[in-house]
Amino acid sequence: xxxxxxxxxxxxxxxxxxxxxxxxxxxxxxxxxxxxxxxxxxxxxxxxxxxxxxxxxxxxxxxxxxxxxxxxxxxxxxxxxxxxxxxxxxxxxxxxxxxxxxxxxxxxxxxxxxxxxxxxxxxxxxxxxxxxxxxxxxxxxxxxxxxxxxxxxxxxxxxxxxxxxxxxxxxxxxxxxxxxxxxxxxxxxxxxxxxxxxxxxxxxxxxxxxxxxxxxxxxxxxxxxxxxxxxxxxxxxxxxxxxxxxxxxxxxxxxxxxxxxxxxxxxxxxxxxxxxxxxxxxxxxxxxxxxxxxxxxxxxxxxxxxxxxxxxxxxxxxxxxxxxxxxxxxxxxxxxxxxxxxxxxxxxxxxxxxxxxxxxxxxxxxxxxxxxxxxxxxxxxxxxxxxxxxxxx
Length: 393
Prior knowledge:
It is a single chain. The chain is α+β, with helices and mostly antiparallel strands. The protein has three domains: about 10-105, Orthogonal Bundle (Butyryl-Coa Dehydrogenase, subunit A, domain 1), CATH 1.10.540; about 115-210, Butyryl-CoA Dehydrogenase, subunit A, domain 2; about 230-385, Butyryl-CoA Dehydrogenase, subunit A, domain 3 (Up-down Bundle). The protein is built from twelve helices and seven strands. It has helices spanning about 10-20, 20-35, 40-45, 65-80, 80-95, 100-105, 210-215, 230-260, 275-310, 315-340, 355-365, 370-385; strands at about 115-130, 130-140, 150-155, 165-170, 175-180, 190-200, 205-210. It has a seven-stranded mixed beta sheet with strand order 5-6-2-1-3-4-7. Helix 4 runs parallel beside helix 8 (about 230-260) and helix 9 (about 275-310) runs antiparallel to helix 10 (about 315-340). It is globular, with a radius of gyration of 21 Å. The two termini are about 35 Å apart.
């Protein structure tokens, strides 16, 4: 175990911004090969991106979610797939920090460790001497191809007990990886499927998912650390939102980069920027970006504030973090759609970034925990005084 001097938020964000040319250069390779380029992974590690949610005692930064938002935004400006993958690593890395301290010692013994994972119960587990035996399949595992560990969810079934979802940590080498990631968006994330066959998991690497969702954590060393005492779902929402902000900003930059040299074909406009329709389009898109920035800031603001003061979370506050995440996704998709629609027929070529940005933001909106309609409906239920119809809050 060790401690290091933790860089400031501005320094971490600057390091990430400096990587934009490299990440942008590798974006097409990542899309073509359906995984992040090794050069990009190494660069992110050197910049400290994989240390952001690691405890300081292991050389990590224990960064707050405002830092995650700003770092992911910079990565998203360069490449949505790279940003999404790094953001997804932050969530299971944080989840690792609620396991017993001895488990953390094992996981964080790997420098710049990368933990992938899911919240979907894709497996079944049975009690065994000293642990459980798991069989199952988990899809959409972003970053699995570069991960060292995976956090899995399985339903534990045994005699004289009710079925119970559990969360477990397993080395990625213990799982069979199926390269089945053939998609329209976020193609570079390598979000493949992993399979467990009669996999034994020691009991110390198994936690009750219900207990975790209720904030009952097993770590003693982290229990008083602000970033590790928040509920899982608000943390997850705040960890992933920056990628979407970055995609909206990327679309804006890509549109304005091409604007001076574009005319509107079959019209008298020799310059697109002279057309009234363009003025309306860019103003509307910009306002949507401004709005989503508010919701992203409110989301990370409440998570960081609650972590610092340790005050109890109200049900409405938990639902608000879900809805803020969803609204960021919806507004980003709307803004990107405006820019893409205004970019003309030439924008559909694969070497023009706007089409990739559009497909990436569309894919994010389909994610079950980020889908705007699902999150707005959940928020509305709570506002109407009804119980949530989901454990994931």
